[in-house]
Amino acid sequence: MITLEKYRLMKSIFCGAELVIENKEELNKINVFPVADGDTGSNLASLMHSILNNVAPQPDSIQSLLSDISEAALIGARGNSGLIFAQYLNALAENYSKVDNSTSNFVNSLKAASLKAYEAVMDPKEGTILSVIRLWSETLEKEFFKTKSFSEALVKALQLTERAVEDTKFQLSVLKKII
Question: How many Cα atoms within 13 Å fall on the side-chain side of residue 122?
Answer without folding.
Answer: 2
